[in-house]
Amino acid sequence: MSDIKKLTKQIIDFRNARDWKQFHKPKDLALSLMLEAAEVGEHFQWKNDKEIQAYIKQHKNDIGEELADTFYWVLLMAHDLDVDLVKIFEKKMKKMRLNIL
Amino acid sequence: MSDIKKLTKQIIDFRNARDWKQFHKPKDLALSLMLEAAEVGEHFQWKNDKEIQAYIKQHKNDIGEELADTFYWVLLMAHDLDVDLVKIFEKKMKKMRLNIL
Amino acid sequence: MSDIKKLTKQIIDFRNARDWKQFHKPKDLALSLMLEAAEVGEHFQWKNDKEIQAYIKQHKNDIGEELADTFYWVLLMAHDLDVDLVKIFEKKMKKMRLNIL
Amino acid sequence: MSDIKKLTKQIIDFRNARDWKQFHKPKDLALSLMLEAAEVGEHFQWKNDKEIQAYIKQHKNDIGEELADTFYWVLLMAHDLDVDLVKIFEKKMKKMRLNIL
After folding, report:
1. What is the per-residue pLDDT for C29?
2. Å from D83 to nearest chain C CA?
3. Using an 8 Å Cβ cutoff, are D74 and C74 in contact?
4. Which residues does residue A3 pair with via DSSP β-bridges, in sequence order?
5. Is the predicted pLDDT of residue C4 greater than 80, yes or no?
6. If you measure CA to CA, which chain D residue comes closest to A30?
7. Closest CB from A31, A32, A41 relative to D35
8. Contacts of C33 (CB under 8 A, 6+ apart)
9. Which distant-in-sequence residues (6+ apart) come within 8 Å of C42 by Cβ?
């Protein structure tokens, strides 16, 4: 089940079942997104290219969890801001291929 | 077309067609992810809740573009690190429902 | 005039003269700090070590401006949160020398 | 001792005594700066204005430590990039007062 609409529905159903939307103000969602992105970045601090390759083999799942957390906030924010993520993504890819971007 | 595998394929095909993988070192990908998340956050700087609601109505697409850019780097990193984003996401959602997380 | 107390006073006097404290809520100050740090980081995106050395020579002042902006928010936040920045810094340096940190 | 030159000297003497400059590549310093700024921001996640005021009273020192860490990387980067932090800061304050900025 890798459909974005369905993944987003999981997030929103979970949130609604607990009445947590009240806490999800846009600025806090954005802050959470930035904090999770930082959690991804932390894994690469101080390491050179060679060390990073070895590190990734060992810690693939840990880094993956931070990526999934970042992914979570992207989907949640897109939903709450009524943004069609895939549509904007496709538009960006099109511009990139046409070299406008 | 909202399937993550297909969206990721678009990103990788585009990258490969231009031989750009050489630039996509994990630390730089993580840095890009953090920078795009910051671009999302910048939209909410200084604004209170009421101002944010009005702002979102006006700038939905702009914020959406930064979310799509963040999304782009999440998918690319997950691919390059050989991380199954959906699998880790589903595991996280399961733990959250069982209240282990 | 490199005394932190005096530099901080410049920031606060400027802010007070314009009655801008009303906008300086802690969460927004923290967000500004994170955004300026990202502006520093952006200068190093995609570049390898050698390219960075050349880049620094050319863009020393630009990077310096982002560092000064980050510095600005650190001082302002420390003031508003009634934090003795130098005292905490000295305590950290002491722990580091004693290898407790 | 709140003079920036002396605080910076403490950082550099410490680093040199351990021969750690080899690890301090600019991109890693920038990444560290961004990560510490995120550590500051994390304290304000989810909290509203009233909760933040109460929180600050309780956790002043914790937030102060992250501010001091951010401050540390600002000074170190300024030194390594041969940036005169105070000079750029003063120039920025001047422009702000003249309303050019």
Report:
1. 98
2. 6
3. yes
4. B3
5. yes
6. D45
7. A41
8. C70, C73, C74, C77, D37, D40, D41, D70
9. B35
**Structure-block tokens of residue B43:** 């939209």
Q: How many CB atoms lie within 10 A of CB D46?
A: 13
Which range has the worst mean pLDDT, A85-94, B1-10, C22-31? B1-10
Count Cβ–Cβ pairs < 8 Å, chain B vs chain D. 5
Task: Give percent of chain A above pLDDT 70.
Answer: 96
Give D42-59 pLDDT, tens digit per residue: 999 999 999 999 999 999
Residue of B42, A39, D67 whose CA lies nearest to C32: B42
Residue A72 and residue B89 in contact, taking contact as beta carbons nearer than 8 Å: yes
Tell me if B35 and C42 make a contact (CB, 8 A cut-off).
yes
Nearest CB among A27, A56, A89 relative to B71 is that of: A89
Taking residues D19-38, what's their average pLDDT? Answer: 97
Closest CA to D16 of C90, C97, C100: C97
DSSP codes joined into one string, B4-65: HHHHHHHHHHHHHHTT-GGG--HHHHHHHHHHHHHHHHHTTTT--HHHHHHHHHHHHHHHHH
**More confident: C1 or C86:** C86
pLDDT of the residue at B99: 82
Assign D81 to helix, strand or coil: coil
The string of pLDDT tens digits covering residues D59-82 is 999 999 999 999 999 999 999 999
The encoded tokens of residue C43 equal: 């200068």
Interface of B with D (CB under 8 A): 27, 31, 34
* Chain segment B12-64, per-residue pLDDT in tens: 999 999 999 999 999 999 999 999 999 999 999 999 999 999 999 999 999 99
Q: CA C36 to CA C69: how far, in whole Å?
A: 6
The one-letter code for the residue type at A51 is: E
Say which of C52, C63, C86 has its CB closest to residue D7.
C86
CA gap B87, C4 in Å, rounded: 50
